[in-house]
Structure formats: structure tokens, C-alpha cells
Amino acid sequence: MDRLLFMKVTPARIRTNLGAMLLCISSVVLSCAHAQQSDVDSKQLAILRAKAEKGDAQAQSQLADAYFVGMLGLAKNEVEAVRWLRKAAAQNLAIAQYNLGICFAGGQGVTKDEVEAVKWLRKAADQNDATAQFILGEKYRDGEGVAKDQAEKAKWYRRAAEQNYADAQYNLGVCFARGLGVTKDEAEAVKWYRKAAEQNHTAAQSNLGVCYMFGQGVEKNPAEALKLYRKAAEQNHAAAQYNLAHLYMDGEGVDKDEVEAVKWFRKAAEQDDLNAQFKLAVCLAYGRGAPQDKVEAYAWSGLAAKAVESAPKFRDQLSRVMTPEQIAAAYRRTKELRAEIEAKSKSTGSKYIWSESILVKPDLKR
Fold first, then answer.
1. Is the alpha carbon torsion for 211, 212, 216, 217 positive or negative?
2. What are the Cα distances from residue 260, in Å, to 202, 212, 231?
């Protein structure tokens, strides 16, 4: 198998909850320029503003939320949101410090400043805010606002992981698997992958499957690997889809089924998994698990050629048994596939998402 182990650290994700979803929906419904304000909204806003102006930190944070997403009849105004956040953050309110850090990191309502972002995220992290701890670990990983530091990265991941923050548990597992900022320990990696996997973290399920497949930190168990790959693959995790496809193609831990293998290679390929794109191309070229289609094979191998060493040679060999018309059609198809994949990747949303305090019940807050 060309690539079974997939250990890419997840991109930074800010905590979301039911309240956040409700607020985002509300911001779409309300007009960006002049939001419609009901009598109820007007009364709620008046009460909230009065408390905020008297120095109530929670009210200041909530007023910032209202400005950030356009609630309570207010037009969306990130600059005004930041103004109120500063007041609440200065009173040591963790959620305000966290959101202010996110604003500086994303340049929302303020000039982007990664150093200032880290300053406020650290204040929230020091108050044991798990999301702030996780993002701070990301900052040390990427060298944003601080110098890259593997040990600091692992330290903040661990603090968030110990609060059952799934992304941090997964990333800490990667640290132990690779020996990044900690002593390499495959058994410890399995421990943290398992904790995240039990929270339905797809990347953790996929990596835990790898551990079972190769006996890394745990006794080798292809059947358990298959189960974990399938869980993650069915939730659209590309690496798990690729790994699951290989098991079906090779008949390892499951009855050999090339049709099923091609199905999963295709799903991963459509998510821009380059190895899956190449394997799909090979299957299509030789009619394994799908009808032979040289045009599609050439197109998919073209996408994979930028990173898979075997792809350019394979495509050159394939071109020798294709007509000029087929090759021209394959080039057009390559452009179509690339456009489709890029369109999907752009729809994933912003890296930084607001974490609000309005409409959040204590039992819903993560």
C-alpha cells in the first residue's frame, strides 16, 4: 500500500454549539444594513445595553455577540463588537478574551495582529478555557504570533485534551505517535486517539485504525481497523476512505471486492486525496472494479501527477494507447474535476468562528 498511515494534524477549529448555530441562522435572516427590530428585541437590547454600560462584563460580552452577528435588531458591526469585547476582556471574562483573540487572529473588526491574538488567547487559556488552550497549541505549531515550539504545542494540547476536547486529544495523539514535543510513545498515542474516537472524531478513528492495522501501540487487529476505517469513511473522512478502499482491493480483513474499493477510492479522490486519485486512475485504466475508461483514468492521473511520483509515467504510458481526441477530452475533464474539487474546498467556511455567550445554556456549553 502506498499510503496507509495518515497523521495530518487537524486545522484549527473554534468551538461551536447550538447557540452559535442559532445566531448564525439569525444573522442570515436579518438585513445586514438595517435589521428589523421587534418590540421584544428593543426591550432586550435596552436592558442589555444598560447593564453593559454599567460595567457588567457578561452583558458587554453578550452585546458584542449581538453586534458581531446582527442580533436584537442591530446591524452587524464587528468594530463595535470588538469595542465591547475589550471592555469585557479587561475584566478577565474568559469568553471575551477568547473571542477578542479570535478577532485579532482573523482581522475581524480590528487590524489583524497574531501577537495580540496570542496575548488574549493565553489569558483565556490560563483560565482553563479548553478551546483557547487548543488554539494556543495551534499557534505554537504554526508559529503564528509566537515562535514555533513543539513542547509548548504539546503542553497546551494536553491541557485541552485533559478536559475532553476531542481535537486536542487527536493532536496530542499525533504528538506521541511522531515524538513531537514529547517522547515518542505509540501506546500513549493510541490512548488519546481512542478518547477522541469515542467522541466520533473521524481523524482519530482513522488513525486508530492505522494503529490496529499495523500493531502500533496496540495488538494488530485488521477486523478492528476495518471497523474504525468504515466509521470514519462513512462520515466522509478522506484518509479513512482511502484506507478502506485498500482493504477491499487487497481482501485484507474483509472479502475482496474491487467494486467496493473503487467506490471508496472515488469518494476520497473527490476530496482531493492525491493517492486516491492515482489509484482510481489505475482502476479505471484497467477496468478493475469499474468499466474501463481511459479518458477518466487520464484525467484523474493528471490531478495526481503534482504529488504522486508514479502518476506522470503512468499517464505517459496511457497516452500511447489513446487517440488525440481522447487525450483532448481527458484534458478538458481534468479541468472540470479540478474546478469541482476547488469549489468543494472553498465551501468549508472560515478558519475562525465566533464563540458566543447569548442563548447558551450552561448544559450546552462545551
1. positive
2. 20, 22, 15
- To the nearest 10 degrees (0 to 180), the angle between helices 202-214 and 222-233 is 160
Domains within the chain, CATH numbers bracketed: 30-127 (1.25.40.10), 272-340 (no CATH)
The rounded distance, in Å, linking the Cα atoms of 77 and 113 is 19
Which DSSP state fits 85? H
Phi-psi sector, 121: left (phi>0), alpha (psi -120 to 50), beta: alpha
The cell numbers describing 184, all together, are: 515518542
Q: What is the mean pLDDT of residues 155-184?
A: 96
Query: What angle separates helix 238-250 from helix 258-269, to the nearest 10 degrees?
Result: 160
In single-letter form, the type of residue at position 118 comes to V
Which three three-digit cell numbers place residue 213?
492495522
- The predicted model gives 276-290 an average pLDDT of 96
Long-range contacts of 31-37 (CB under 8 A, 24+ apart): 31/70, 31/75, 32/70, 32/75, 32/76, 33/75, 34/75, 35/70, 35/73, 35/74, 35/75, 35/76, 36/73, 37/72, 37/73, 37/74
The cell numbers describing 12, all together, are 484549527
| Sequential DSSP letters for 335-359 | HHHHHHHHHHHHTT--S------TT
Sign of CA dihedral 363, 348, 159, 101: negative
- Of the listed ranges 27-41, 62-76, 161-175, 260-274, the least confidently predicted one is 27-41
8 Å CB contact between 203 and 210: no
Q: Is the pTM of this model over 0.85?
A: no
* Dihedral sign (CA 68, 74, 76, 80): negative
Instruction: With beta carbons less than 8 A apart as the criterion, state whether 24 and 356 touch.
Output: no
